Amino acid sequence: xxxxxxxxxxxxxxxxxxxxxxxxxxxxxxxxxxxxxxxxxxxxxxxxxxxxxxxxxxxxxxxxxxxxxxxxxxxxxxxxxxxxxxxxxxxxxxxxxxxxxxxxxxxxxxxxxxxxxxxxxxxxxxxxxxxxxxxxxxxxxxxxxxxxxxxxxxxxxxxxxxxxxxxxxxxxxxxxxxxxxxxxxxxxxxxxxxxxxxxxxxxxxxxxxxxxxxxxxxxxxxxxxxxxxxxxxxxxxxxxxxxxxxxxxxxxxxxxxxxxxxxxxxxxxxxxxxxxxxxxxxxxxxxxxxxxxxxxxxxxxxxxxxxxxxxxxxxxxxxxxxxxxxxxxxxxxxxxxxxxxxxxxx
Length: 346
Ligand SMILES: C[S@@+](CC[C@H](N)C(=O)[O-])C[C@H]1O[C@@H](n2cnc3c(N)ncnc32)[C@H](O)[C@@H]1O
Hints:
Structural class: alpha/beta
Bound molecules: S-adenosylmethionine
Distance between the termini: 34 Å
Number of domains: 2
CATH architecture of the largest domain: 3-Layer(aba) Sandwich
CATH topology of the largest domain: Rossmann fold
Low-confidence stretches: none
Largest sheet: 7 strands, mixed
Number of strands: 7
Order of helices and strands: HHEHEHHHHHHHEEHHEHEHE
Strand content: 5-15%
CATH superfamily of the largest domain: Vaccinia Virus protein VP39
Radius of gyration: 20 Å
Shape: globular
Mean pLDDT: 93
């Protein structure tokens, strides 16, 4: 790539993830808004699939990414890393056999997700990842494993299990073994271009624990509080969250068919707690430029959000764009046509 390549073009090297609320398709619009703002340091405390954090890195900013779930933090660590690739030697170590009987994943998820061979493969690689030296190599390998699992799971969510033949439309992603996926995804993450030259970081943290000091800008993309239904990330992605921490420090709800882990409470999960959460968020980051992504199908409405933001910011500008989220069932997709907002408080 030439030095003239725009940050947006550089950010296109980011591996797309099927993630609820991903801003991937809105990146050109978000870029237009960000590029006119004066900032060098930024936080993305609801980093999710990571595409906005990666865009800001490609814009040459120093980005602190975080999420209250472990697997988005791992993905962000892998894509914001400035060095490190999974080389052939590391891949051999990742694929090496591990002695011992059925592992945790095979015992727990037999008949729930994937084939027995896939589950054995997951135990093998997940165990070997823990033996790799260094946070970045471990994050890169885990990111490849997470993306493999997401690709092979029908609809990309872990709410469906057992006989999934009704979802089998012959797609290649459903046919490949997890080992074949993993080998491909290692290459995909190895090909993510190193962009930007400022140091970036990624960690697991609640947004309300992120230190606001020294941040020129904060990009806020909390879950859109549903007017009905739910927006629970654990319900949809519990398997990836478990994989990221190898189910250490989490409790499996044994009574559930898909072996979910306990929900993680967030004030953005309910209308009862959402208003106060927005207020605390804006107050926390009041010294920084605040850029908030929100949608017209979320609660509260735009006027309320603008009013809250004005408490802390003298100038509030709102950009609006129609958007269709490609996520969920056909019925839900129908409902997901909405206006997308970017509120910019300065
Ligand atoms: C709408 S998604 C972010 C999408 C992301 N911008 C992207 O383009 O992929 C919201 C994220 O907020 C995270 N989250 C929810 N409550 C949180 C909290 N209290 N602190 C930090 N992260 C939280 C969820 O785990 C989820 O990854």
